[in-house]
Amino acid sequence: MDEVFYENLSQRGNFPGTATAENGKLFKVTNTTHAAYIGEVGAGTGLWSAIGEVTVIPEATPRVANKYTIAVQDFAQGISMSKDWFDDQMHDVWQESVARFAIMANITRDTNAFGLFRGAFTTTLTADGVAAISASHVTLSGATVSNLVTGGLSTTTLNTAIVKLGEMKSQEGVIVGAVGAEMMLLVPMALFKLATEITDSVLISDASTNAVNVYRSMLGIEVMTSPYLGAAAGGSDTAWFLLSPMHSVRRLVRQGVTTALRDWMYSNNRTYYYQGNYRESYFISDFFGLVGSAG
Fold first, then answer.
1. Which domain holds residue 275?
2. DSSP class of residue 90?
């Protein structure tokens, strides 16, 4: 059974740009050996100071605050099959059942992981207790920061998002410049065509001036999509997100997928029992490096 299960565990459609919970660029992995993970948001020393030749070097103390605790969730499912059903192998039904069982594990993981973005404007909170996408984040240095963009996806609003990322202040209250290569534009399926046209057309897609499309020629933004972002999955068909490689969207892994088979001999009704589980959670610890729009 494991052969069938693991052969199908990573099966997905071949739609280009499809993002999954296992994408390490989108969900940065943190491994843990405990049932809960405790972390804090830190602020470094800030900008360096100009000093004289023999001046005592200025000293700054790093700060930490906004402690958060993430409980690791346990996901599991089982499937029963009679000995006769297994032995007779009618129409390969049990193989299909195990294959679908494996695929459901992936769907469960993606559905929960992308719930971070479905709730980014409301229920997904960063360690400061504010929605992940908000105009009201406050850094440890006391500066108010907005990572909220207003408007549907277009060349204009994408440029606004890029500027906002580039000028965003970190917890130190310093403009870090969180833009550059390997930015990711995450959109629901309904916006994938538009997002691709904006970022991959040779010329600007929504103008008649034949201007060069800098999003393609210079920035190389990677467009990602997921069916678990849109309205059909309880999200939005208009919301979109731009992520810098410096973002803090995390996947906390306690245990990967494991399976176990109970032989029919150990049951009182001649049934096999096949089960699997994995343990992980998903969170966004800090607003920095992430901007978004509800559309």
1. 76-293
2. G
Q: How far, in whole angstroms, is CA 213 from its chain's centroid?
A: 27
Show Cβ contacts of residue 36 under 8 Å, excluding neighbours closer than 6 positions.
69, 70, 71, 72
Tokens of 241: 């997100």
Cα separation, 268 vs 83, in Å, equals 12
DSSP conformation class of 169? B
Number of separate domains in the chain = 1
In a domain, 38, yes or no: no
- Has this prediction a pTM greater than 0.85? yes
Residue 84 lies inside a defined structural domain of this protein: yes
Could you tell me where the DSSP H helices lie in 184-285?
189-200, 214
Look at residue 265 and tell me whether its pLDDT is greater than 70.
yes
151 in any annotated domain: yes
pLDDT tens sequence across 187-221: 999 999 999 988 887 666 656 666 666 776 667 78
Quote the CA–CA distance of 291 and 286 in Å, as a whole number: 11
Residues in Cβ contact with 43 at an 8 Å cutoff, skipping those fewer than 6 apart: 62, 63, 64, 65, 139, 140, 141, 170, 171, 172
